[in-house]
Amino acid sequence: MRMLLTLILCATIMPTVSTPAVAAPNVDRVARQVDRLLAEELFGDSTELAPQIDDATFLRRVWLDLVGDIPSPEHTTAFLLDPAEDKRDRVISDLLAHEQFGQNWARYWRDVILSRRVEDRAVLVANSLVTMLTEDLNSGMGWDEIATKFITCLGDVRADGATAIMMAQDGITEDSTAEYSRIFLGIQIQCAQCHDHPYDRWKREQFHELAAFFPRTAVRPLNTATKRSFEVIANDRGQMGRMNSNNLNRRGAPEHYMPDLDDPSARGTRMKPRFFLTGEEVPIGTSDADRRSAIAEWMTDSEWFATAYVNRMWAELAGEGFYEPVDDMGPDRTPNGKQAVEFLTKEFAASGYDPKWLMRVILNTDAYQRESRPRRLPDAVPFTANVAQPLRGDQLFNSLLTTLELDEATIRSMVSSQGARAYGAQITPRMVFNVAFGFDPSEPRETVTSSIPQSLAMMNTPQISRVISAGNRFRPMSLGQLIRDIDDDQLLTSELFLRTLCREPTEEEFSTVTAYSESVDNRKEVYEDLLWSLINSTEYAFRR
Question: For the whole model, what pTM was predicted?
C-alpha cells in the first residue's frame, strides 16, 4: 500500500554558470530604484519584510521562471559550491540566453491567448504560435514588434502564429477587438460593447470606434487535398453580402456598425476608426492594411501598452501585480506602487520594449528575491514577500521529465495515445497533461485550485507509475538502478530530494524517511513511495 510521506517545505537549489555575465549597470540602477520607490511609497518603519532567499531557493525559482524547468542535481550542487559573489547574475544571464527561455514564455502566451478562445479549433494555431514566439523572444525582438505582428496578421494559422488572437476569436470583429485591448493594453474595453463602461470612463461609442479598425479582417476555412486549416484574410473589395452580422465574420465588411439596441434588426451606426486612448483616427474607407498598421502603431506607442507588459511580468515573477487582475487596468484604476510601476514602464519603453531586459531588472530586485509567503490579505502591505505560484502545466511536465531523466520522444513511445487526433493534430502526452493542469494565466492565482483529475493524473496514471517503478529498466535513469548503485540510505534520500525539490532534505525529513524505512523493511518499496511522495507534494507543484 502506497503511503505518502509528510514533507516539510524548505529551500531550493540552483545551477552553475561558467560564463561571466554580470548584470549591466543600467539594469542594476533600475532595479535598485524600483526597490527604493516601493519602500518610499508602501513600507513604513514597522513594515516586516521577508528575508532574502538562499541560493537553493533562488536557483529553482529562477529556473522555473525563466526556462520553465528545474535544475538537475549536478546544476544544483555546482551552484551551491560556487563561491563567486556574482553567481546569481551569471545564472540569470545563462538562462536568458537558453533556447528554453523563449519556449517557456511562448507557451505562457499561448495559454493567455487560447484560454479564452471562442473557437475550439483554434488549437490548430498552437504549434505555429509557440514556434514563432520562441524565435522572436530568443532573438531579442521588442514586444512592440511582436504585438504589431499579431495586430496586422494575415495567412494560414498553421503556418503563422501571429494569427493566433484572430483565430482564437474566430475572426469575430468585436471579440478580436476586445482581446487586442485586453492583452496588449491591459484594458477590458469590451465592458463598453453594449453600454457605457460601469466602472471606467469608456463610452459605448469608443469600443465600436476601436472595432472599426478590424471589420475587414476575417477567418475562413482553408481546405485543400492535403490540408485542412483556417486563414486570416483581409477584404477591401466590398460588402460581399455581409450586412450587420458582425458575429459571423467569414468574409469581412468594409466598415463596422454599432448596433441599434432599440432595433437590433437595423444596420446601426457606421463608426469611424478612432483610438479611444488618444483620439487618433483614420478616415472611413481606409484599407485594411492601413487601418491595422495605424492602430498597431498607436497601441504600441501608448503608455498602457508598456504598463500592461510590465504589470504582467511583475505579477508572474513577484507573485502579485501592481494592478490586479493583470488585464484590467486603466486610468481609473489605482495601482499598488504607483511610482514604481510608472518608473519601470518608462525604462522598459526606453529599452526598446526588450522582454529580456525587463526580466533581468525584475529578477535583480529585492522584491523578487524575497522569500515566499502566503498571498496577503486585502488590507496587508503589498510586495513585502514573493508569493508562491502554481506551476503551469508545461512547467510541471518539464519538471517530471527532468526528475525522471526522460525526453518527450521517449515518453511518447511509452504511452498508448498513438492514433489519437484532434482537428487533424496528434494528441501528445504534453497536450493531455496540459488539459489536466493548464489554467488561464490572466486569472488571479488565488482562483487556481487543484482538482481531482490533477491528483489522479499524478498518482494513478499508468505511464507515470511505470516510469517510477523501481523494477523499470526501460530508461537510462531507473529508480531500481539508483537503489542498487547507492547503498547508503541517507545518500539515496538526498539524491531523490535533489532530483525532485532541488534541495537537500531537512533533518526532520531524514528522520521521517528513516522511521518509515524501519516500519516497512523493504528498501525498494520505501524509495518508490518516497519518490511518489515527492512528486505529489505541494512543494513540487509550486514555484516558491
Answer: 0.91
